[in-house]
Amino acid sequence: MVELSFYALSAGVVAMLGYLFRGYSRSKVLLYIFMGLIIWTSYLTILSKTGVLLDFGMPPRVPLMIVFPVIAFILVIVNRNFMNQALTETSIHLPVFMQSFRILVELLIYATYLKGVFPQRATFEGLNYDILVGISALLAGFGILKGVIKPKGALIWNITSIGVLILTVYSFISTYYFSDFASTLEGSRFVEFPYLLLASVLLPAAIFLHAFSIKQILNRPKNSNVH
Q1: What are phi and psi of 124, to 5 degrees?
Q2: Can you tell me the distance from the alpha carbon of 76 to that of 153, in angstroms, rounded to the nearest whole number?
Q3: Of the residues 6, 19, 23, 133, which has the maximum number of CB atoms within 10 A of its CB?
Q4: CB atoms within 10 A of CB 155
């Protein structure tokens, strides 16, 4: 059930991100998403099957081969001209609301911890406070929609939430690469499917929404309605 949930949630998140581009030609968007998923899935499969990620020594393979390249790709994408339509046509509160998917991610992380695959340190019982970001996303999104939270407040929320996300990533890295947790039979499964989807799909989705939201806020005319 936990394994299936990773696939279901990842598919749902990809579909949610696709909604941001609803104003584009549907066939073109679907084609790009499909091609991107094929390329990314193939790359992840190669990494997983070759056992490259099973080396938990230095340098840390998952951050270097998955997380950092994704962050670089996202920063490039959100600054491309073709993103302008999505940035201007999407209400500012929407990408903030979408971050509430992190509530489900945290519950899934905890369920995976109960299976022995993820460490307690990486759950909300340890150093992972990301569930608070998911909950606050509902409140912040509603506040932006009603005009209670202004662009500066939305920007502060995004930056603070990124800080919490960095702490969450640290909780995983510090456990898998600076302890003997990964040497256990279940612990090493972190770099296998479907658990690999946490670092390769769910984490990038959160980063993309933050980058998208911040770009929206910075590009928004000062006299424009915030929501």
Answers
A1: -70, -5
A2: 25
A3: 133
A4: 15
- Does residue 2 contact residue 104 with C-beta atoms inside 8 Å? no
Dig out the tokens for 25 from the structure.
């030609």
Q: Cis ω on the peptide bond leading into residue 194 (within 30° of 0)?
A: yes
Q: Which two tokens stand for residue 206?
A: 């959160």
0.90 surpassed by pTM: yes
- 162 residue type, one letter: I
- Tokens standing for 216? 């929206």
CB distance 129 to 30 below 8 Å = no
